[in-house]
Amino acid sequence: AQSVTQLDSHVSVSEGTPVLLRCNYSSSYSPSLFWYVQHPNKGLQLLLKYTSAATLVKGINGFEAEFKKSETSFHLTKPSAHMSDAAEYFCVVNTSGGSYIPTFGRGTSLIVHP
Amino acid sequence: DTGVSQNPRHKITKRGQNVTFRCDPISEHNRLYWYRQTLGQGPEFLTYFQNEAQLEKSRLLSDRFSAERPKGSFSTLEIQRTEQGDSAMYLCASSPPGLASEQFFGPGTRLTVL
User: Residue A110 — pLDDT band, cuts 50, 70, 90?
Assistant: First the structure.
């Protein structure tokens, strides 16, 4: 069984300040973890993924995430928010030993103030 | 453009009518997924194909919903006797072989049932 919890439905930051979007997962096997971004009226786009290699994963647009097995977390961070980062972010888990059906979190809406 | 395409992009129908959506995945991807997304929620899994075989179908999926992928290429999703509760964005995604493979999403079909 697998599940994912995004701890915040909304995160509000000022432009130029750090971003932290929190994600906790549960899985019976080794997980693959993903973050996707969805801008208004656009399709989902992969930001980054973790697949049991380096625990610190770098993605596009300056985002990165750290896999912490002891905390079952995969939080997404960015040092300095840009107005264009305002979007919906989804944390996704998929586990070996199961089907190839990823489980999505309910999403975190990132709001960036000028 | 070699991404995932979906048609139509928008569909407005009256309650009780049947609708059919099409998804064209990236050509070398053997896996194809359908999701439904409502406002403020993450994508909800509907069904999954590996090549032409439909391997999983959500238990939440009404028998009014059916999907096909006859030659392992494009897929169709049909909703019979539509209800107002079917109004949502219907997303298609494809992925290449491998558990750690990310999904590539189409732009979605927005269904409005009047």
Answer: very high
Tell me, what's the pLDDT at A97?
59
Test B42 with A32 for CB contact under 8 angstroms: no
Query: HSE on the CB side for A23, CA within 13 Å?
Result: 28
Nearest CA in chain B to A9: B40
Q: Is B25 helix (H, G, I), strand (E, B) or coil?
A: coil
Residue in A34, A43, A100 nearest the CB of B31:
A100
Contact flag A107-B103 (C-beta cutoff 8 Å): no
Smallest Cα distance from A5 to chain B, Å: 11
The mean pLDDT value of chain B amounts to: 92
Contact B43 A51 (CB under 8 A): no
Q: What is the bridge-based pairing of β-strands A108-113 and A10-14? A: parallel
* pLDDT per residue as tens digits for the range B5-15: 999 999 999 99
SS3 B43: coil
- Which of the residues in chain B have pLDDT under 50? none
Yes or no: say if A90 and A105 are a contact pair by the CB < 8 Å rule. yes
Among B70, A77, B88, residue whose Cα is nearest residue B79: B88
